[in-house]
Amino acid sequence: MGGPRGGGSPRTGRLTAPVVVIGPMGAGKSSVGKRVAKALGVPFTDTDRVIVREHGPIPAIFATRGEPAFRELEADAVRDAVTTGGVVAVGGGAVTHAATRESLVGARIVLLTVSPEAVAERIAGSDRPLLADGGIDAWQTILDERAATYAELAHIVVDTSRRPMSRVVDEVVAWVRDGEPGTIDAPEHTGGTP
């Protein structure tokens, strides 16, 4: 993983490197990412929303074009979002695509984790294509397949299972500010490195 690039500070609404939020389905990537971006005063991009806006509903893409085609669209969306900068939330399976992983080089990567018990409530009634047959068991199988890639990419791991969203956001914001040059009165570093 490359180091931060560029210049600026979160106090001026710029980051030296994009912050990318990864993790399994239901971990809270979009919610956390949006709030972190707001706290830092930088743009936020949810790549799933970009795909839906440009190509239609994700379940329909999976049904008509298949997962490989979706992953190509996703890789393009991630590359564009990382180039734009700010905070980027990517889909749970984005890291399975080589081009997407390549786009993440140089980014600061936050892995959000969640327990199966906590995620079961969050994904109930979901239309997520990969969970259509199997629910929480399918979720666990998918997580097991991706866990090593998540761990390899992550610079910080934050669990969202039973913690208030505000605490999760504060921890990520503090970690980002701690690593940003030129930041004045940055909060104490609260995150660990896996």
From TrEMBL:
Where, per UniProt, does this protein localize? Cytoplasm
Residues that bind ATP, according to the entry? 26-31, 128, 163
Q: What enzyme class is recorded for this protein?
A: transferase
* Record text on cofactor binding: Binds 1 Mg(2+) ion per subunit.
What reaction(s) does this enzyme catalyze? Answer: shikimate + ATP = 3-phosphoshikimate + ADP + H(+)
Binding residue positions for substrate = 48, 71, 92, 146
Q: Does the keyword Nucleotide-binding apply?
A: yes
Which cofactors is this protein said to need?
Mg(2+)
The reply to whether Metal-binding figures as a keyword in the UniProt entry is yes
EC number, as in UniProt: 2.7.1.71
Q: Where does Mg(2+) bind?
A: 30
Pathway per the UniProt entry: Metabolic intermediate biosynthesis; chorismate biosynthesis; chorismate from D-erythrose 4-phosphate and phosphoenolpyruvate: step 5/7
Keywords (alphabetical) are:
Amino-acid biosynthesis, Aromatic amino acid biosynthesis, ATP-binding, Cytoplasm, Kinase, Magnesium, Metal-binding, Nucleotide-binding, Transferase
A GO molecular-function descriptor: shikimate kinase activity
Q: Give the similarity note.
A: Belongs to the shikimate kinase family.
Q: What does this protein's UniProt record list under function?
A: Catalyzes the specific phosphorylation of the 3-hydroxyl group of shikimic acid using ATP as a cosubstrate.
> HAMAP family annotated for this entry?
Shikimate_kinase
Q: How does it assemble?
A: Monomer.
What is the protein named? Shikimate kinase
Native source species: Curtobacterium luteum
Q: Which gene encodes it?
A: aroK
